[in-house]
Specification:
Catalytic activity: (8S)-3',8-cyclo-7,8-dihydroguanosine 5'-triphosphate = cyclic pyranopterin phosphate + diphosphate
Enzyme class: lyase
Function: Catalyzes the conversion of (8S)-3',8-cyclo-7,8-dihydroguanosine 5'-triphosphate to cyclic pyranopterin monophosphate (cPMP).
Organism: Alteribacter keqinensis
CATH class: Alpha Beta
Helix content: 25-40%
Family: Belongs to the MoaC family.
Number of domains: 1
CATH architecture: 2-Layer Sandwich
């Protein structure tokens, strides 16, 4: 399979050996969001949702997802994370959009892009779960990598 490091000599997927990679500080940021109706928006903002504090629960779910990414994504390495920060913002210009941004950091031999993306996804899914009684028509917005630093492939920053 030539230079593809994710395949063994039989052409089958494998977890990449990172034992020779340099340990560096690595960061990643990802974004997702949920479009909700007015009733859900007001319930989250006013803290009156029946299942509790939606953003607090979603934030904990996002942190847990980042910490457990290797249990969700088969070829990811278990990582010791230095930090996970999840931020929420509202964009109500065209619709009621809850924007989710996740920042993950580690010092290690592999990046944290998957941890940031998994965290953003789990955070959005938790918002949906917490609010679905008031509207199953919510839309989970695209989830994507904003930026990453560290590693041999260098830095990446999405141009918006």
């Amino acid at each position: 399979m030539g230079s593809f490091t994710h395949f063994n000599e039989q052409g089958r997927a494998k977890m990449v050996d990172i034992s020779e990679k340099k340990e560096t500080v690595r960061t990643a940021a990802a974004r997702s969001g949920v479009i909700v109706n007015k009733e859900i928006y007001e319930g989250i903002r006013e803290g009156t949702m029946k299942k509790g504090d939606v953003l607090a629960v979603a934030q904990v779910a996002g942190v847990m997802a980042a910490k457990n990414t290797s249990q969700w994504i088969p070829m990811c390495h278990p990582l010791s994370l230095s930090g996970v920060d999840i931020r929420f913002d509202w964009d109500t210009e065209e619709a009621y959009k809850l924007l989710i941004e996740v920042h993950v950091k580690t010092k290690g031999s592999t990046g944290v892009e998957m941890e940031a993306l998994t965290s953003a996804s789990a955070t959005a899914l938790t918002v949906y779960d917490m609010c679905k009684a008031l509207g199953k028509d919510m839309v989970i917005m695209p989830t994507y990598l904003l930026e990453k630093t560290g590693g041999k492939n260098g830095d990446f920053k999405r141009e918006e």
